[in-house]
Every structure is written in structure tokens, then in C-alpha cells.
Amino acid sequence: MSEYIFSVIIPIYNEGNGMKKCLQSILKQSYNDFEVILVDDGSTDCSSQICDEYARKYSFVKVIHKENGGSVDARKEGINVAKGKYIVFVDGDDYVEDDYMKELHKAIENKAEYYILNSKYSIVNKKELKVQKKNFENEFINIDKATEWILCGIDGYLWDKIYVSDIIRKNNIEFSKKITFGDDIYMNLQYLKHVKKIYTQNSSSYIHIWSSPTSICNLGVSKNRFKELDVVFEEAISYLKQLKLPNYIYEQFISSNVSVLMQTIFLLVRNNVSPKEIINAIDNCKLANSLKNYKPHGLKNKLYAFLLKKRYIKLTYVFFIIREKIKKM
Length: 329
Fold this sequence. Notes:
The structure is a single chain. The protein has two domains: 4-210, Spore Coat Polysaccharide Biosynthesis Protein SpsA, Chain A (Alpha-Beta Complex), CATH 3.90.550.10; 224-328, no CATH class. Helices cover 46% and strands 17% of the residues. The chain has 13 helices and twelve strands. It has an eight-stranded mixed sheet, sandwiched between helices. Strands 5-12-7-8 form a four-stranded mixed sheet. Helix 5 packs parallel to helix 9 and helix 9 packs across helix 12 (299-310).
């Protein structure tokens, strides 16, 4: 028997004092049938102490301290102790608006197994908020559309979804991969295998901060990122074959990941990894090798595919530097 309607799981890794904004935004909700589970994933800064402070102050806030194992592992630990009928995930560097929990409850009034909500985003240190998904409706959608959104760079996130706890437990869904990049898509695919009824709601009370300094995308990047991309790639291929979904979804998935591969190369060069090491990592990357049969559409994707196939590492770096300068103009 669930003790709460919602379990809010927040993985924490070196969020520092910035996480207080996130926690305060959740704690001031007028709707209060929820628990907060803070999973301290081996933080080495003040995050652990802040988690303990909030747990002492609020009875519905729980803390798990664990060795660093990546964001999937952290969320898995949170799921294991969750007592809510529904589970939602919040990133420690994001925050929510005052009606967030009310909007979650409004969504679950429509009986479904998987809920996708809208959200807002802003660039770090900027006040302007923009709605994430345009032309979004309150409606039930099919598995093809949900898969396309998740795999093709439209909506692969965890933080704008609602998950049913019983579906995870009764189907023994095992989030076994200890990865930190591509983890949202990986976990969504594991869950999607077991659902049919999907509801979308055009409420955007969750605020995601792009380019946050504590975001995993901006932390130190290693060659291991190619291996993590392969985890997601293999899961996606297996999932598409299992559900016998249209081939265009596979093509769009590959297309969206070309940009991710390029960004990874850029970050590795910036972190002083040698071109030789990067080429070796790409040569062993199944996702990168899948480009042999990839037919890119559009000038940008054709350029990206060309640079990747030719292993032009330094030219890729120069291209991204120029692109960043143009963006700032």
C-alpha cells in the first residue's frame, strides 16, 4: 500500500548551495501528499550536509548516502525506497513553480501508465523562461509517437514524466547500467517496454536550467562517454526490434546522435585528450560505426557525418569553436 501519492526522487552530486533553490521550490507546494527522496551519489562538497539538514527539518524528506555510481544508479536507489504510488524525478540544479504538484495530480486524473508533461527552460543566470514543447496537447498518444519523441531528441528527459511505481515493481524493471550520459533515454526505454496507455498534459511548471555548471553535460568528459552512448544505442536498437516500430524512428535516432558524437569530440579535445585517443575510441564505438549505412539529410548532418567518417578531429573542434562564437554574436 502506497503511503504517498508521489515520490519525488532527486539525485544529488556536488550541487552545493545551489540545490537549496530546488528543494525550497518543492517544499513550498500547497499540495502535500508526497515524499522527497534525496540520493546523495557520493558528493564531495557540502551537498551531503545540506541533504541531512533538510531531512532533519522535514519528516517527509529522506536521504540516501551512497558511493558514486552515476545518475541511473542513484535514481535506482531512490526507486527502491519510494513509497509513492507515482514517481517523478527532479534534477538538483532545476526548480519547480508553485503549482507543480497540483499539475502532477491533475495529470494522473487521466488514467494512464506513462505521463508526459511540458516544461520551461532557461539558460543559467538568465531570467527569461521559454516553453520547451510547442503545439503540445492534453491527449492520449500512441507508443510510436512517444518513442519518436524519446529517441529523436525531442523529449528524452526524465524530469517531465510521471511513472507508475507498480509498473516498475511488478515487471521487475531493472535499471542496471551505471551510466551518467544518455541515462534519461536508457531509463525511459526500460519503462516504455511495459506500457501502452500514454497521456500528455500541456502544463509547464518544471523549470530546467540549460548549461548549468553542475550538469553532467558540462562536467569533465572522458572517452568513457562513447561507451555510455553505446549502452543507449544498443538499448534503442533492441527496443525498436522488439516493438517492430517504423524504420524512420531508427533513422531519426541516428541523426539526433550524430550531433551528440560531434559534441563529445569537441569536449574531449577541449579537455586535452589527444586526437589519436579520440579516434581509437570512435573506432570502437558501435554508434559511430553505424554511420557507415547512414544517409544524412540536411547540410548540417551531412557535414557532421563527413567529419565523423573521415575522423577529422581537429577540424571538428575548430568548427564548434566558430559555431559558439557565431551564437554569441
